[in-house]
Amino acid sequence: MSEHEPVTSPDQHKPGNPRAARIGAGVSAVILLTMLVGNHRGHVEDIFIIVSAGVLILALVGDWVLRRNGLR
User: Fold this and answer.
1) Would you give the distance in Å from CA 43 to the centre of its chain?
2) What does the alpha-carbon distance between residue 7 and residue 61 come to, in Å, rounded to a whole number?
3) Which of 36, 41, 54, 57 is deepest in the core (most CB within 10 A)?
4) Do residues 32 and 49 touch, judged by C-beta distance below 8 A?
């Protein structure tokens, strides 16, 4: 930081690209679900992967509903 640069709070910064975040979450969920195919015997990993992908999909659906209703 230079001495002439103003100090700002995080809420004053421009937000990131929301479209890229949605695409990244969708791609991550698909990649997680492809990890179910494999040669592992235990189902603990399967449960963890399904829950993780479900959380990402739930966040995408929640974002879609909020944007459809005009909220951000």
Assistant:
1) 24
2) 36
3) 57
4) yes
